[in-house]
Each structure stands twice: as C-alpha cells, then as structure tokens.
Amino acid sequence: MSLTFGTDGVRGDARRELTPEFVEALGRAAASVLGAERFAVGRDTRVSGPPLAEALRRGVQRAGGAAVDLGVVPTPAVARWCDDEQVAGAVISASHNPWHDNGVKLFAPGGRKLSDQAQDSIERRLAAADGGAGPVPETGSSRPVGTPPGDSAGDLARRRHVQAVAASLKGRDLAGLRIVVDAANGAACGSAPDCLRALRAEVETIHAEPDGYNINDGCGSLHPESLQAAVVSSRADAGLAFDGDADRVLAVDGRGTVVDGDQILAVCAIDRAQRGRLAGNAVVVTVMSNLGLRQAMAACGIDVVETPVGDRHVLEALEERGLVLGGEQSGHLIFRDLATTGDGLLTAVQLLDTVMRSGNSLHDVAAGAMTRLPQVLVGVPMSPAAAPADLEAALGPIAAAAESRLGGSGRVLVRPSGTEPLVRVMVEAVDLETARSEADQLAADVGEALSCP
C-alpha cells in the first residue's frame, strides 16, 4: 500500500496506482479508525469513479459499517450530508486533475476533513493490511434518516446542498444577473445551474456534458479561457468556473477578466468587515496567497493568518482562532459559519450577493478590493527516485538566493506539491517581466537540484 495522504486526501493514477484493491483497503481502514457504523460515499464524473466507489463501500462493509451511495455529487454536498447525518464520508475524486487520475477525500462524522492524527492512524492500518480477506458482514439497511421512500440518497444530498446555499442569502436573490457556468464536465453540472436559477439568475452553461473522460479537459477552474470568451460574447455579468468536484470556483467578470480566489476572498472579507460579520476581524490564507491580498487586508485593518497549502490547514486555523473566513488562491474558500469545508457553489453565491448589494459590476468590486502583484507559477517535474534525500535542505538555499536577488521587492516560494509529482515554484515581483525571469531561473535551479542524487 504505497499511496499516502497528500494535501487533500489520497490520489494516484487510477489506471495503475489507485486500484480497487487499494481503495477497498482504505475504506476498511478508514471505517475502523473513524468508528463509523454508517458511511456516505460520493464521487465525481470520472470513468473510474463507479468501481472505486463500490470498492470503498466494500471496505466499509468489511469493517462492519453500512455505506450509503450518493452517486455523482459535489464534494461539499457530501460534507453537508456528513454533518446533517453525523456520519463519516468519502468522495472519489481527484479534484482538478485529468480523468485518468482519481483519489479519495475522507470526512469525519460532522463533515470535516481528517486531522493529521486520524490520517496517520489510517496509514498505519493500510501498511498492516492483509488485503481484507474474509466475508462481508451483514449490515442491514443503508437508507439514511429522512429519506422519503422512492427518493435516492443522492437526490436528497444534492437538494439539501442547493437549498442550504440558496438559504445563505437570507431571502435575497440574484435576479437581474446573467451568469455563465463552466461546470468542468464534473459534479457541478446539475447543482450549480439549479441553485443559481432558484435564486432567479439567468444561467447559461458550458462544459456540462460529462462522458467520464472530459472532466477538467480544457475547461473548469484551471482552464477558464472558453468561459472568458463565453462571458464576453453573451454579454453576461459574470462567469463561474468550477473544478471537477465543485469544491472550488474562480470567477470571470463582464470584461472577461479572471477573478481568482485571493480577489474573491478580499471582496467577501471587506464586505463582511463593513457589516460587522467578520469574526475576529481576520482572515486565514495560505503561503500561496498573493502579496496584494495581504496589502489590501492591512489597508482595511483586517489581520491575516497564514497556513501551509491545503484547505484542511485553513479550516484548522479558522477553528482554533474562532474565525469564519479563509481560503486559497485556487478558489477554495471556507465560510466556516455556513459550511464545514470548501464549497465552490457557496463561494460563488456569496460573491455574487456582495456584487448585487454593492450596485457595481464584478469588475469594479474586484478591482476595488485589491491589486494583485504579478505572480508567476511554475511546476518542475520531480521523480521521487531521483530527488535529493533531504528535499527541504536542497531547495532552501535556492529559494533564499532568489529572495536575495529580488532585494525585498518581491516574494519567493518553493515547495513540493501535495497532489502531483512536482515542485511548485512561485515568484511575485513588482512587474511581470521580473517575475517571469526570476521564476525561469528559479525553476532551472530547482530542476538541477532535483536531478542530483
């Protein structure tokens, strides 16, 4: 059992790494560690999803639990279900990755991502797993509490999620807005348009015909180009680009300009602070957040708490400090007073509500909230077999040298990816040319270090 937990669950190539046998063992270990007699399992639209979901359900059953199949649902819908039903859960998804990758995101009863301790316990059980031989115990009915006869658990989970997001506006709506939704051929295909239409917005959808292979393929939050074009051509007020499992979102303004997670966070933080709804007068961000966000928060008297990359770390900081708003540049935001995890649809609705109440366009609201410093991101491929034994020791001096070259006028970050075999290089500078030049040099230096055993 070689796969381990990364930034957001366990991921691997479903053609050769993330096998049904591994996922079954993971399900058994997770159910044992979490002590969950009932488990909810959802998935996105990848072709590998159904057999992996079935494997995870078998693993839960081998641990003596009963697994409820929610089918294709957004990750935040599973988290909300786990909170409503007080059960553990899992989502079979690799988020923004291509179709051939898949993964397992786990939730503890109550709908929160697992602690480091819980993940370590599951990994230890996996390491000692013998393949899960033995008969599957009888578990009884898996029909969840409150499910009407004839209504599937998945239908109910989707409906609960949509209704909760719409209800977060407390009677307000989005009437008069024209929105283009890029569903990334993923889990947002039904929920996002349904919710926005329930809030009286006019909705056009693109990339909403999943076939198992086209999830995130040239679309969604990592590839917003077609959404930008669609917003401009249809003269829409805004566009929304989800990822494969719909726990993150990026926006596009009426001019076709991308509004990223840092800008969305700035808009919502300033709005909440002005309305007295920003607990602790602080937000939580990750090390990847743009320096412009930090500057904008300082100008508004809002404190910033920084964490490592990963929504799990953001949520931990929110809960430890009693705060309510935090997130990542990728568009993975957490409104802790409204949900237990990142929710792309909730984030989108909160952003659009802020725009509606301002009386201005999304472009003007985002531009007024913060000014992004030019930021360049580069992924340097890394072979674990060829990487230096002490990766941190090898990369630290390289990053320090780059910081020195910038002379205090920018920022550098070098870190291993938690989801892909890459080292991520980020450079911020006062101008784009400097950021690109320094990022190229930094990536070359990192590449050379990675090639040295």
Account of the 3D structure:
There is one protein chain. Helix content is 40%, strand content 20%. With 453 residues, it is α/β, with parallel strands linked by helices. Strands 1, 2, 3, 4, 5 and 6 form a six-stranded mixed β-sheet that branches. A five-stranded mixed β-sheet has the order 8-7-9-10-11, with helices on both faces. A four-stranded mixed β-sheet has the order 13-12-14-15, sandwiched between helices. Strand 14 and strand 15 form a beta hairpin. The relative contact order is 0.10.
Q: Would you summarize the structure shown here?
A:
The protein has 453 residues and is α/β, with parallel strands linked by helices. It is built from 14 helices and 18 strands.
Describe the secondary-structure layout.
Layout: E1 10-13, H1 20-34, E2 38-43, H2 49-62, E3 66-72, H3 75-85, E4 88-92, E5 101-108, E6 112-113, H4 116-127, H5 153-167, E7 178-182, H6 188-198, E8 202-206, H7 225-234, E9 238-242, E10 249-253, E11 258-259, H8 261-274, E12 282-286, H9 291-299, E13 303-307, H10 311-321, E14 325-327, E15 333-335, H11 344-358, H12 362-369, E16 375-381, H13 391-406, E17 411-416, E18 422-428, H14 432-450
Parallel strand pairs: 2-3, 2-4, 7-8, 7-9, 12-13, 12-14
Antiparallel strand pairs: 1-5, 4-5, 5-6, 9-10, 10-11, 14-15, 16-18, 17-18
Helix pairs in contact: 1-2, 1-4, 3-5, 5-6, 8-11, 8-12, 13-14
Radius of gyration from the alpha-carbon trace, in angstroms = 22 Å
Helix content: 25-40%
Model regions low in confidence, pLDDT < 50 over at least 5 residues = 131-150
SSE class? alpha/beta
End-to-end C-alpha gap: 25 Å
Number of H/I helices: 14
Number of strands: 18
Overall 3D form: globular
The main pleated sheet reads as: 6 strands, mixed
Tell me, rounded to a whole number, the average pLDDT: 91
